[in-house]
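Homework-ish question, so no full write-ups if that breaks the rules, but can someone show me the predicted structure for this set?
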Amino acid sequence: MSRNARMALYMLGIIVWMGILGLIAYEAGSLAAHSFIGTGVNASLQKWQGLYKPLVFIMASISALITVFWCALTEWGFSVQSPWGVGKRTVWSLMGAALAVLSFVVPYVYVMQKSALIMSPIIPVIFLLLFVLAGYWISTIFATSAAYKYTPLFSSQIRRRKGGKN
Amino acid sequence: MRKKMHSLLVLLMVLMGLIISGCGNEKISVIEIPKEVGQSETVGQSAPIVDIYWDATESMRGYTALQTGLYRTLPDNLGEIASSMGETHFFRFGEAVTPMEGRSYRSFSSPDAYTELVTSFGRVIDEANADHLSIVVTDLFESDADWSNVTQKLREKYFAKHLGVAVIGVKNPFQGDIYDVGVNAAKFSWDSGNETAKFRPFYLFIMGPEQDIKDFLQRWQEHFAGEAGVVEMQYAVFLENLGAEQTSFPDLQVTDSKNLYSNESLEIKDKRVREFGYDSSSNETGLTVTCKYRPMNGACLANMQKLEKVMQVFALDEESGEWKKVDAGQDAPQIEVGPVDGEGNYNATLTFVPDQAISMGHVNFIHARLAPEPRSLKLPPWVKDWNMANIDLDPNAFDGSKTANLQHILESLRDTMLSAAQPALVNINLVINAR
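A: Not a homework solution, just the prediction itself:
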């Protein structure tokens, strides 16, 4: 399989993986909502879920986009001959940090638009754990192109344990 | 690579299985209040049918003799009020009930219309349609024997079906004879002239769905607002909802809750019922609602220090669709009532532990109500003033400005309502899906 085809496959895998994480985020958020949506007459769990679902989709999409962008950079963007002036790990870290910040910002901006959605700090924490750690971090460990496969943090331990195979 | 793909596929299948298994249970048909709990409706009919039965016995003629008073214009006024609610029919009754065509009911303003000899109130109850709003215009002169028969009919046809009864009393000038008084069917004459203290009462006896009765009373009071202070009118209301407002969902406000959240996993069309979910089945769960005891004009007054706290829990048998009673003994849900403020506001708090109080694995219905202790309901004070003691003991005590046996008649209505219906200050109906 060519490198381009393999990267395309990895990107598809990232999208599927983010979709699965999105489902998990939806269920986890729904379970957490039992403790904070309250008993208001217009605040049923089902109504809350209806408003929460698009938020999960947005976060999963952002996470998938950033992760795919990283992988695309490692395959087609980075070049030894034209360094950016910063290390690749710095770029990787900055993208992860940006995603972590968005995990907190996006829900609260969303709530400003959909005031009927009751928000709790547990939701950004769920997004952080799923979309940043399990999503971005894990995906980039396995999907980063071979040239930069040790760039993501701890990827050297994991990928080396597999005998150096990609 | 193949091993990796294989592991990924297995993981995907496990995750999908987990998600699908949590995607809801078999659909249950529409949730309704259990029959044992049955309550009066809180929403009236959009266009009720109003049937007006006019007592056409000779005893009623005297109300039309004098030019003043409400009675002479009552046919028009009553027709107007009833028509504003919905389709209206007039009937005259004595021994039999006869429908009246067109606007012939206007003849009740004239003495010539009163030719019947016997008042058969019981026949009117038999022929009345319980789904309609029925109004009987009469002087309520009934013997004990006649009235016990009427009470039994009212019990079966109205109170047992969570329908209501109300009485409007109006003092009116009177000049004429009153027949069939007491055991000896004596005849008395009475002339009030223009002395208000001697005006004789007539009554509107109203039966039907609670909300339609309330609607009629409100329209009646608005229509005759100008007569306030001029015409003496009194009310006695026998409705299941004693509090008049904020007596059940959706009017009840939830002010506090513990381990509960609003849920809509079931199809519940009845707005008197709300569904909740709990977070943890082993933690104490609580719900506090703000209630208001503000009895409507003429309602029997409850003693807030003498309330019965009724608690019932049912679990739905999904196969038969029947509600089965759940007996949790001392672990059953508890209800506590807070103090009442000057405006009749008070809190009622329901507490329970789900895995002890309800049936896990089923849909549960929790019904809590605050009911007056038997015999603690008081009739409005005017009843005593308008009551004439038993005329058979002393014929010289006849007072045409009062009604014989009125207190006994209205007490029997109150007692029948207490025994046949479920009068309450507040009804709290919850559904908990514990499947």
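Now go work out the reasoning yourself. Hint: The CA atoms of residues 29 and 123 of chain A lie 6 Å apart.
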